[in-house]
User: Fold these one by one.
Assistant:
Number 1:
Amino acid sequence: MNQHNTNVFDAVVVGAGFSGLYMLHRLREAGYSVRVYEAGEDIGGTWYWNRYPGARCDIESIYYNYTFSEEILNEWTWSSRYAEQPEILNYINFVADKLDLRRDIQFNTRITAARYNEQNRNWEIGMEDGTQVTAEYFITALGCLSASNIPKFKGLDSFKKEVYHTGRWPQEKVDFSGKQVGVIGTGSSGIQAIPVIAKEAGHLTVFQRTPQYSCPAQNHPYDSEVINETRQNYAEIKQLMRYSMHGVPSAPRMKSALEDSPEERERLYEKAWQEGGLFTLTYNYNDIGILPEANETAATFIRSKIKKIVQDPEVAQKLMPTYYYATKRPIIDTNYFETYNRENVSLIDIKAEPITEITPNGIKTTDKEYELDVLVFATGFDAMTGPLFKIDIRGKNDVSLKEKWEDGADLKTYLGLSTSGFPNMFMLTGPQSPSVLSNMMVSIEQHVEWVADCIDYLREHHLEAFEATIEAEEFWSQQCQAIADMSLLTKTDSWYMGANIEGKPRRFLAFSGGVGLYRLICDDVAARGYEGFTSLLSSNGTDESLVKEGFFKADIDPQAWFVLKQLEATGAPPMESLTPDQARKSADFQLLAGAPEEVETVINRTIPLADGEITVRIYTPASEGPLPALVYYHGGGWVIGNLDTVDVPCRMLANRARCVVVSVDYRLAPEYKFPTATEDAYAAVKWVAENAESIRVDPDRIAVGGDSAGGNLAAVVALMARDRKGPSLVYQMLIYPVTNHSYDTESYNENAEGYFLTKNTMVWFWNHYLRDEQDGKNPYASPLLADDVRGLPPALVITAGYDPLRDEGEAYAERLKTAGVPVELTRYDGMIHGFFWMPGVLAEAHYGINQAANALSRAFHVV
Ligand code: NAP
């Protein structure tokens, strides 16, 4: 450990806010020499600089503190639900004193440059005053929102009186009494400051660009009961926070906003409004951030509240937000909308009346000049990357971070903690980490602990020059964007997207999969020897590169990978450990399917069989005259699955291929073993052909299709129809079909587990389906074994790269081709089994469904 030379440290940490302080503590406790540099006069970071009137936290205080020390937890008592800035700063000071942190912090020192020395494998870190130190590890603890943004208004510097930015508020109290005050900006900071300033100012003019959704904080003092109960249960609370979505000990209710009646929704939203809190309203449902229609229910509710609170209807109208709710950081307030009922407050909509310049006396808009004594910029921050770019950070080959990420290139990190080309540099709460979307304290503790453990590991294993691989950061960055794209987050211009800063490249700047999932991933990376990173043996060893293989497959689709991780995180038992009934109940994948689209008519009806009846669901798009038909069989290994599982793709196929889709609820195994499902499937196609007219179907244009076990049934029905001289089929659409009772393909080996459908589950399915081994050799169970596949209808075969069934689907396509059957075969390389019915979360499901619909259209000649 470097402990003697005052210019050489094991680690240099930049920033003495919550993350820098904990990093110092952790590393120092582990015996490393650490120096923290802080530009401010004192500790506190965000809470040191943001001392504007009304500043308080939007996470409940009892969850917004360090949790690593029980002693600290027990010795500190928060006064109210949402602590004010001075109280939070007091808390930070209390911790710093208790842990004696100040002795290793150098204040009033701005780091201006940090350069990686490849020869010495360390960082040379330079200060504003020209001093330089070196350290093996360079750790940025800069905060995500510390580079304040003052828009470049014309005449900005000409204003003669007082000017402030909320994020750089002076230590001394600002006196607003009797003054003409102007506030530009109505984000979280503006919305907190405006009600407080309004009470004191002579007149307050708010210059608003985008109206905001805000809910009441319902702040109140804590009573001792809450504090005691929290203390007693903190171990459990901590676990809940750590494995949650946003770092708070609660979670969204697993229900769609569209499932409740408008009255029930209203009741729940009203209850949330009265209760207050950052996530209370959105957590009523799990799709407010995903489905526009669900989102609109919450947005409409908040707008109705604004209308009720604000007395002047014109002002109320100006305050009505229209973007998707919660796609900017949700805001909680104390009397924000009420403030516009005050005589001394006016609201200027600067979209209607743009600011043209700042003048010596105030703000000039296209309509008039507003004279001001005080001008407050509540205009936010150059978030996430801004603070990093303020330091000239240079990695290998003297490439700067800014060049790497912005100048013609793209932001890329691995886990938001590291970026390739910058060895031994760690970013706490960096871009592409979940930090800004969460309770920051939970993210901070996770980051610091992961980094500290990583440094221990490197030392123990004599590893140096630790950096992310290009492949790993490429993957992670795609991942961050893809996950965000699944939600509404990327549909709004926000600082999460870099949209608040002129010229800043647009892309989603955080990991939006939640802190729990993020923690699991980071732990996984560490447990596998820091996969996705490279390092070199230390000087007494050789220069042999220890490149760790990625734990992920670089070419798996990031959205599919995320689905897998999410399913893994549910901890659901493997299907084969359940009874068929339990498996049917547990397999509810509605969220993966997404919102069902409208089809002109959708009806369920029963159709007769020789020995009973089954249900079919008939989707008919708007159209005149007889339509072609697709008879569709759902998947589920002949054991699970039902009409609902494939409701969304059936609707999409009906609308896109302009055909009637008849989805068949064939009887399931093990109650009904082979060949019941095949006979039911065949009976359904016969019924459609014989009753075509009654369901507006053209009997000469019938196709069969299905996915997985349903693909098997479709292929088998095509064989049966040929063999039995039954209905003449124009097409077979086989989506990752089961074609052979065998587990010996390469794809079974490669994808036996970890990709949704496992080999063991397939064995379980087959065992329930077949009466005996002999059945498995029957071509109506294993169509690949059919003696002759000539004379079958043309086929579309779609397979997925990460699917045990990939090779048997492709083998069947090859057999058909060899026998002269026209075949369109497409492998969706990055996809997993089941993707066809996951359009709610996978873009490729849309491509697959569109491809199938186009192929059907061509087969039906209705293009
Ligand atoms: P912000 O959310 O980025 O809001 C900035 C405001 O300034 C917006 O109303 C924005 O309008 C406006 N603005 C920006 N550029 C402008 C321009 N050129 N002309 C006119 N208006 C302009 O910043 P913030 O309020 O400081 O909050 C930033 C983040 O800090 C929050 O999202 C939150 O994460 C955190 N924060 C938390 C708390 C808390 O814990 N309670 C308090 C404060 C801040 P547009 O919307 O049109 O861009």
Number 2:
Amino acid sequence: MHLVTVLYSKFMGLLSRVLMKFIALPAPLVFTGAGSSAALCNAIAGFGHKRVLVVTDKMLVELGIVAQATKALEEQGIGVEVYDAILPDPDFAQVDGGIQHCRTQNCDAVLAIGGGSSLDAAKIIALSAGSDQAPRDVLGFFKVSQRGLPTYCVPTTAGTGSEATMVSVITDTASSTKCFIVDPKLVPSAVALDASLMTGLPPAITAATGMDALTHAIESALSREANDETRQKALTAVSMIFNNLEAAVKDGTNLQTREAMAIASYYAGSAFTITNVGYVHGLAHQLGALCHLPHGLANALFLPHILDFYLDRAAPELARIAQAAGVGQDTDSDQERARKLVTAVRELKSNIGMPSHADGLKEEMVSELVSRALNESHGLYGYPVPKYMRRKECEEIVRKLLPA
Ligand code: NAD
């Protein structure tokens, strides 16, 4: 890279970090507990909205989850318009369709019901439908100049934390890349963490999304941008996930474990939206886009390998995470406890049935994947990781995921 480009990118990265220290990130109003989606709908009616666009996917409509969540809106006489064209890892065409739908139906608010895919799409649909900013014009960091329509979120997976973040991820299908829109104006106005909508989430999706939340929490706790507040949220999320994820995968009908996971995911989202993430995400975004793997699974594949990589530089921080996870003893050295954490992450992954190799990954993809991952991780707003990764080290980690 040209020296001027490197210096410019470092300057912009520094500037954004300084700005983040002074920007008070808005926090959504949070409704919790089984049935809290009805409380959120009552609140939406109270806010004076007349017609709400529900952004979701077909599966959630078929399962009756959308009707269950929106019943209270209809009872209050609010118009409900459903846009259910969202697919996992939504692309620009799905978002553009939603913007069009929202405008032609004269909706004055957007309610997302679904996993991170529906939430991310809804956040951009609301932004663009309520302003004259097209999604592609606001790609990147802090490019949003006007607020869009108010956005409300009911997550039905416990993983992405998108209901708490200023981030939307949209896939560019032509180049198989994930594009980011990051701006405080994307933080939803209110959310409901309603575990009663999550009891039918299949075990494999529960496992993958739970590992996504764990990755957010761990990368946030390890971030050089962590502060006392983000660390508390991240470590609380780690503790809740270690105590509940395996049980949620094995018995999805238990409302207590589902609720703990929903809250943990929200805490992890509120922490990483301030601290940013790290190499696990840098690699997982690229693996997910190139091999079409679910985001949580891609994170889970890389997490233990990246923690191994950090062991010699971040043992005290890893030991603190281990303590939150209930792993190791206070008499252990930091290095011993940090190693035990990595072993515990591998055990958790295996206990919830997650693989160790990436289906579809081929040797000829490694070089491109590594270039893209390092570009994301070291680029304009480079991730505040505890240890710098060289290309050769990155290639070695990616090769560990090649199917045998
Ligand atoms: P998802 O939204 O893609 O959903 C996965 C599948 O689960 C879908 O088929 C959906 O129909 C199904 N599903 C969802 N809830 C269900 C329920 N209660 N019962 C039965 N089936 C259900 O998965 P996800 O992991 O939640 O979201 C992934 C997306 O989120 C990716 O695009 C990723 O890049 C993005 N993401 C965004 C952020 C952010 O801060 N904005 C953070 C992490 C990930």
